[in-house]
Write a structure and sequence with these properties.
Blueprint lengths: L1 E2 L6 H12 L3 E8 L2 E8 L4 H8 L18 E4 L2 E4 L12 E3 L13 H8 L9 H14 L5 H7 L11 H17 L10 H12 L13
Parallel strand pairs: 2-6
Antiparallel strand pairs: 1-3, 2-3, 4-5, 4-6
Bound molecules: FE2/S2 (inorganic) cluster (FES) (2 copies).
Protein name: Oxidoreductase iron-sulfur subunit
Pfam family, one: Fer2_2
Organism: Rhodococcus opacus (strain B4)
Length: 216
């Protein structure tokens, strides 16, 4: 990957790359985690490879490369897509957000990221970025999901090690955090018994191992 240099025209750079490598290259301008840039890539480059290998946003993981596991999910103009199924060239003019881009500028974790910590929603973490981006998009559409809706929201992503109970709990906890942050959380700060009851409702029968579970 070559970042486009202002001193030589992009066409010249593309021609030179093609001559050097024997491979057709394309110039793609898109926004990745709020930074707009033009990159020159072999035209066959997948979005997942461009993001992860060329632009070093390594939070995006690549598992199956066939659109099955969901590990490579990013937000494309706010919608979840499997980046292993998208050519980098088709990102032209689009806005891509990876798991890194969900963190607030002041370092505050996205509600889904915080919820995965609260509910112990990961073990090895390989699948986690795909779940986090998928759930973040889902909560934009529905910030008060039922357990069934939470289950449906994660049904397309695969996890090999942690099971889905805690991940589903994280969906519900993330919704709670989102509502809390928007000032809609219905409970008073000191209402511990109501909070405990909500924890049980959020976690259901899940019993995460160790540490604080359900609430920060
Ligand atoms: S790596 Fe893209 S869906 Fe599995
Ligand atoms: S936490 Fe390991 S694959 Fe999901």
């Amino acid at each position: 990957m070559t970042m486009a240099k202002a001193t030589r025209s992009i066409d010249d750079q593309l021609a030179e790359l093609q001559e050097d490598t024997g491979e057709q290259h394309v110039a793609v301008t898109f926004t990745l985690n709020a930074v707009t840039q033009t990159v020159l890539l072999p035209s066959r480059t997948l979005a997942s490879d461009a993001i992860r290998h060329h632009l070093r946003q390594t939070g995006t993981h690549v598992g199956c490369e066939h659109g099955v596991c969901g590990a490579c999910t990013v937000l494309l103009d706010g919608k979840p897509v499997r980046s292993c199924l998208v050519l980098a060239a088709s990102l032209e003019g689009r806005e891509v957000t990876t798991v890194e881009g969900l963190v607030e500028p002041d370092g505050t974790l996205h509600p889904v990221q915080q919820a995965f910590i609260d509910c112990h929603g990961l073990q090895c973490g390989f699948c986690t970025p795909g779940f986090v981006t998928t759930i973040a998009a889902f909560l934009e559409e529905n910030d008060s999901p039922t357990r069934e809706e939470a289950t449906d929201a994660i049904a397309g992503n695969l996890c090999r090690c942690t099971g889905y109970q805690n991940i589903r709990a994280a969906v519900l906890r993330a919704a709670e955090i989102k509502r809390e942050r928007s000032g809609e959380f219905p409970l008073g700060k000191d209402d511990e018994s109501a909070r405990a009851s909500l924890d049980r409702k959020v976690r259901g029968t899940t019993n995460p191992v160790g540490g604080r579970a359900g609430r920060a």
